[in-house]
Every structure is written in C-alpha cells, then in structure tokens.
Amino acid sequence: MANDAEMNRFIDNLMGKMTLEEKIGQLNLLPGNDVTTGAVMNSPLAQLIAECKLGAVLNVNGLDKVRELQEIAVHKSRLGIPLLFGLDVIHGNVTIMPIPLAQSCTWNLNLIESGAVVAAKEATAQGINWNFSPMVDVSVDPRWGRVAEGGGEDAMLSGLVGAAMIRGYQGDFSNENMLACLKHFALYGASESGRDYNTVDMSRLRMWNQYMQSYEIALSAEPATIMSSFNVVDYVPATANKWLINDVLREKWGYKGMLVTDYASISEMTDHGIGDLKTNAARAMIAGTDMDMCSNAYSKHLAALHDEGIVADADIDRACRRVLTAKYKLGLFSDPFRFCNPKRLTTDIYTSENRKVARELAAQSFVLLKNNDNLLPLRKQGKIALIGPLADARNNMPGCWSTADRPELYSTLRECMQKELKGKAELLYSQGCNVYYSAAKQSAAAYTRNIPRVDDKEARNEALKIASCADVIVCAMGELAEMSGESASRADLSMPDAQMDLLKALASIGKPIVLLNFSGRPTVMSWESENIQSIMNVWYGGSETGDAICDVVFGKKSPCGRLTMTMPRSIGQIPIYYNYMNTGRPVGENQQKFHKYRSNYYDEFNDPLYHFGYGLTYSNIEYTDLSIEGENIRVKIKNTGAREATEVVQLYVHDVFASIVRPVKELKAFKRVTLAAGESQIVEFRLTPEMLSFRDANGNNVIEPGDFEIMVGPSSADKDLLKTTYKCKQPK
Question: If you average pLDDT over every residue of the chain, what do you get?
Fold first, then answer.
C-alpha cells in the first residue's frame, strides 16, 4: 500500500480536478436493493453514478450487479471515481456467526476476530467492501432489541469486542478485507424505556464513565468509518452535534476517518424538531458529518448552502477528502474491480474452514445457567424427546440481522440431533405448540416460514405423549429471530405464552428437562429457573447452531460462555446492570427480605436472576489465595471436577472513597484459562493506573489516592468474588 504522502498527493490531484457538484456527489449514499441484474444500466442509480452524483451504494445483492454499477462509475463518469458498496454484515455473510451479543459471551477476542475475518472474506467475494459493523453501543436495558447487535452492558468489554471485529474486517486491506463502520456514535443504547430510536438524556459524568469508553477502545483498532446515531445527545441529534463529532471524536480522540449518517437520519432531524431538510443539511455538514445515507439532503441542498455562504468550501472539501481516503485505503483507485472476482464465489463461501469457525464460536457462546444433578451433558442412550417450535425451524437458525438468503444450507437442531444420535438413542420429536397463541403475534416476525401454525390442543397432546415415553426432555423454545434486532423492542421479556404453557405442562410430568433458550437478549426466566433442571441460553448461534448445540449438550465440548448482560428476575427491575452506584440506603446483594426505608422493592429482590459474568461449566473451579504484590495481582484457580473446563477469570475494582460516587464494582480485566481435571494455575493481572481512574465531566482521566477494593472471581456476584484492598498513593 502506498504511504500517506503518496495518498495525499493522489487525492490532492484528484480533488483539484473535481467540480463542487462532483465533490458533493461523493457525499451521497443511496440504496440499490431494487436494482435488478440486466436492468442496471437503465436504473436511476446508473444516471446518478455516470454524473458523479453518488459516492456509495448500500444493499446491492449480487456480484453481477456490483460489477455493473462499478463499471458505470469507472468507465462512464468523468473522473472514474469508484464506488463503495455497503451492507450490514452484522454476524457473517453466508456462513453465519452467532449474534454479536452471543459472541461477546465467549469472552474470546481472538475467536471473535476470526469470525470477522470469515465474514469479510465471504462478503468481499460477493462484491461488498464496506460493512456497517460493529455496534458497540452500551445498553443496560434488554427491552431494547438491538442489544442483540452489541457486546453487552460493560463499556470496556463491548469496546474490546468491537475492536476485535474491526481488526478482523479490515486486516491489512487485502482483497479479502472490507471497511469497518463503528456505530452508533453515540449513546444509542441508552434510549429511554428500551424503545428503539427513542430519546437519550444523561449527565456528562455518566456519559463518560458508563458509555463512552466502548467507542474509545474500539477506535484503537482504527476503523475506517464511523456511523452517527439516530438519538439526541444534549438535546441535539447526534448527526448534527458539533460537540460530539468535532470536539470529542475529531479533536479529543483524534479520529481522522469518515463519518456517515445512519439511514436517513438527516431528514429525521425534522421530526426531532430541529429544522427543515436544508437547515438539517447545513447543521450536519458544519458539525462534521461527511456522508449522507439516504436523505438526499446533501445532494439537494449543499450547493445552494455553499452559494449562500452558509457552508464553506473547506467543509465540503474535508468531507470529500475523507470519503476518497477511505476508497484509497481500500485499494479501489489501483484496482476498482478487486472485489469482483467470480471465482471466489465457489472457493471462499460456506467452506468447511469457515463453518468450523462459526461452529466453535457458537459452542463457546452458549451460557449454561443451571444444571441440577449434572443433567448435562446428556448420555446418548434411551429415548430423548425434542420438543418446541424452534427445534425444527430452519429460517430461525441464523438469527436477527442476518444477510443469509440460503437457509436451505443450514441444518435444524432436529436434523443435527438425529445425525448425532443415529444408532445410539431414539429421538422423539414434536413441535408441541405455536410460538404464540396469537397468530398475529407469531406472524409479526419474518422468519416463521418453517414454523407452521398448528392446532394448539393436538400439538400439546402429541408433545405430552412423547414426553411421557422419553427418558429426558429437551425443549427448544424462546424468541423468534425477528423478535430481537432493530425495531424489535419488547415490553414483556417472558417466554411467549403458548410455549410457557407447554413448558409448565411438560414439567408436571416429572421427567428431567433441558431448556435450550433461544434469544437475542436477556429474558425473564424466573419460573424456569425454579422449576427446570437444566437451562442453557443458546442465543441465536448462526448457521452452525444445531451442530454446536449437539457438541455441548452431548459433552464433546464443555460450556464456557459467560453472561455479558445481567438477566433480570422480573421486568420491573429493568434497567438492571452490575456496575450500579450505591445509594445512601443500600440493602446490598443477597437480599433475603424487604427492608422498609431502604432502596428496594416491596415485591421483588434487587438481585438479578443471573449476574453479569455468570456461567457454569461441566466441572467446578475453586478460587483461593488472592494477593497483591506491588502492582501484580495473583489468584489461584483449581479445577476440582472430573472434566476439562475453561474458566473466565474476572477482575473487578471498586474505588472505596472518591470525590464523586463510583460504581460498586467495574470490570477491569479478564483471562480465559483452560484447566484439565485436577489442574491448578496461578492467574496474574497487572494493576495499571487506568484501572484506578475515572473520567471527569470533560472526559479527562482522574486518579485519586486512597483505598481500592480488588475483586477476582467467576462472575460479578459478591458471593463469587475474593476481595482484598490496594492502597493507591498520590499520583505523580
């Protein structure tokens, strides 16, 4: 790749030839999902491209269409500037990885990066060179459907997951890499009441200490592009927020890449009450927003705003340069068709190597929440009843925000279990029920084509009959794929009614039950936790879900996922998160009863059902001997069980007395350690000044002397943590 000086000379020379209209054209991003092969040349997009009025296209499916559009840009426009082709490749392309929330539950950054490498390889084989991922928005409200797309409730962990994805997508910008797009800047996950696109409002202190770190950490991986968010920040839409984009992102953090709006967010500023489209275009451009996605605000109004002196040449030139720089770094000027090799369609997509990565990611993402009497792993013997509307639901396997349009490639859980048990145990199957009693609710989700409506009474009787004949029952239940993701907020996070009634009926039989809970968010499972012997959250595991579940359920692999979002006992506890601040009247964890005039509920405990960081294995890990010597923290862990296990050792810090109120604990480091049965190991962490700091209202690091509580254990729950004290001296 050419160095920066060569790149700058090239772009200077190119921009010297460009008219104002051509520069503005580079800032225009429009959808191409209605373009059909063979009709490309006659489409409205073709004319815009030929006239240099379009810089990028999103949602074009098909290598032939990508090439045809690129041919127009390169050979029929005056300056031959190539296009970017963007797509939401959120968790894989044809080989589908688990949803990002599930990936974060692996706490395995190297494996997450490998999954992103596969996604980039497959997407670029189909002509896509710009990915609108990763999302690192912190959210503490699982009602918000887009928690499925993020890395959980902790800003540090979310940022690390995002950085891993960026490294995987972008690599060294080879033919198998694509531009990443870090999103959504900023605070999108803090929407009120968990309702998508809703208002965000918070203090600067909370903003810096609980939310902004995820973006800052992800920026360390140098994403080529960033996407602004729909919401307001300090009552100003993020897309036009000069403090957010210019003062923080550009000046404080030094970001030099391209910033694109979310879908039509400039035009949506009118509904926020900011101004008409022309006014919004000016505010967004002056704030530092470079590319307009689908509002046509820049293409319609920037030239006039320039002529009126409202928008300066320098504003447009800066934005155009950033777009051209992204294209240059991607190698499009040296080879505009580097992502248009049809041979790769047969060599790079859904390969055994790609599927192996997806299968391992899925297996490591599953979180074992309960396992009474070591019911799991199951033995391959006798009769196993597989029951539930998600057990044989092919289209539901990839999960929400999936680009997969070839579900016939993917095996269902039923098919995988039949293959796994062939000749060893008898598999009995029944759909058992509908997802909901209400047909309207069930049909509201897009991926229900393989979940037919059944007669509730007949299906239930069939399920109860086979369950009575079985030695163990495996229930595949939970959310449909489209019940999570964008525009999929839920007010009730309990199991859908028809499934819950069936689960209760099955439990009354008295046979052991394994519940495989499919979801894109933490759900409320209080009844399940009290009445079902074994529960494993399998999220949406992607194209290899069925085989990955079999790997874990039958003991080929031990579960090692850990929650990255707190699971509530009831909906009334939400928002609920581990790094909360104490009140002046706390009740503490492990609350046993209601305390009058204390900060608690009359009808519910404060504690969650399952804490952040929690997850079981098929073994037992013992923690002892926590110590601090200088800046080195050590703890001994031992596998006291009979199986190999992977433990996620978590380090938390609490600032005991500070100039501002600090959370009861904050995750500062973690390590994944695999131990054979009976093996022990000393795990070490280095305590850095950053771990003891907080941010002031201007986003600056503050370190104060005093006592810090150091906590190490398998989850954020107090009962799981070993604790000691570290005394921080006056920083120099």
Answer: 95
